[in-house]
Amino acid sequence: MKVLVAYESKYGATEGIAERIGERLRTRGLEAEVVRCSDIGDASGFDAYVVGSATYEFRWRKGARTFVKHHADVLAAHPTWLFSSGPLGTETVDKDGNDVLKGAEPKQFATYAELIHPRGTQVFRGAYHHDKIRGGDRIVAWMPGIREILPEGDFREWDVIEGWADSIADSLAAART
């Protein structure tokens, strides 16, 4: 069974998540191809899809949004899962007691629920390193106080990511039998 893991990443953290998902699916006997959304011309020819993006200000990156818009019919006709990366730190709840990961869901999860009917969605923690920031983001990253507000480090939980990939493999195996 062929699975496309399509992603859009700005600084590489989401790309790393997509690569790990692809690796895990391959260890489970699936043929997984991991490709940046903006590099995909034709998305047909796969049996299932996993699509993810880094999230900024509760929105997926443009390349991922464009990919879903252009390939909505293909995605809706096949098993599809969506993921997002973004929240930093290790806190599980915010100052108001709300689940941090649930609160970080991109608005695309709700939009795409009606459009492509994903089998599942997942928000993963991301990574942030002050010294990797480039372009226009440098202005924000170097504003007074930002370094103190944004936790620096790699907060990706590889066991959670692998567990989610395993659940996708299990779902696809169950559909084959």
Automatic annotation (TrEMBL):
Domain Flavodoxin-like: 3-169
Signal peptide, first to last residue: none
InterPro entries hit by this protein: Flavodoxin/NO_synth (IPR008254), Flavodoxin_dom (IPR026816), Flavoprotein-like_sf (IPR029039), Protoporphyrinogen_IX_DH (IPR052200)
Domain of life of the source: Bacteria
PROSITE patterns xref list: FLAVODOXIN_LIKE (PS50902)
Protein name (Swiss-Prot/TrEMBL): Flavodoxin domain-containing protein
